[in-house]
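Please, structure for the following, as tokens.
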Amino acid sequence: MNTENKEADNLLPSSAAAQRISNLPKYSRFTQQELPAWKPILTPGSVITAFVSIGTAFIFFGLISLFASESVVEIVDRYDKDCIPSDDALPYIQSTQTNKTCIRKLIVPKKMRPPIYIYYQLDNFYQNHRRYIKSRSAKQLLSRAYENVTGDCEPEHKSNNQPIVPCGLVAWSLFNDTYVFSMNNNVIHVTRRFIAWRSDKSKFGDDVYPKNFQSGKLIGGGKLEEDKPLSEQNELMVWMRTAALPTFRKLYGMIDESAFEPNDEITVVIQNNYNTYSFGGKKKLVLSTTSWIGGKNNFLGIAYLVVGGLCLSITISFIVLYVMNPRPMGDPTFLSWNRNPVRRLN
């Protein structure tokens, strides 16, 4: 406390002086900014070293990611065009009298070890459309007590004045193509029990059963088992986790007992039921293995390589500038007001 403050305190009543002293903050090294601190000086050498380290690390992880992605074996088969008997697809797919069975042959390019994941891929399908994604009832899916809450589900909300469970366009458009796999006339077992996430199951109640689903005038996608609660119908839970992009894959099942050797021929019997022809969509069947980084995706590895390459390019630029035009540390002549002195008027 300086002399002026002491004199001011002497002029104050004793109670006021005591009050002012009590309001002073408690001393600590933190409040007084006396803690030790590290204040690095960015020298050319430290900056170049940092960029080289970051660039090398990014390139290293990028190469590892690309190697892991390339180790994934994928079989992608587009079947929507080949599984219709003529160019006029709409009458064929909309009729209940046409035979929609389609047989496809898949050749294994490399050895595929279980688990082998089966996906269906849809292109040009906008599950992120606002009208589509809002057409559901979260309360109805969670509890049987709210089965009449269908206000947001129009036009797929009621059938014969009875609530539809699950209601809404998302559930109504459930994917309903089926696949049966075999090799050498032996059926390959496909597990569909564990394809839904735990977070998906938490949104579906154990006491909610399908009711009036796909039984009215609007017939869209697949049907559900009426004797099973929604929390056990994994294909519905996977479908209702809406995709963010118009091209997406959803898990159909897993092959966890069979391994495929190179040049093995897999026979797939497809029931081509799902109507993607009315909006110009595509359907693909995907068989894929995984690596420690997940499925086949080169984006992460390429992104790492690009960032690492940029860091090394910046490093080279810094080195060239430092060699061609070095600047001594602490030289005041490089300050802007010394390089461009202001002329003073006499």
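DSSP finds eleven helices and ten strands in the chain. The chain has a mean pLDDT of 87.
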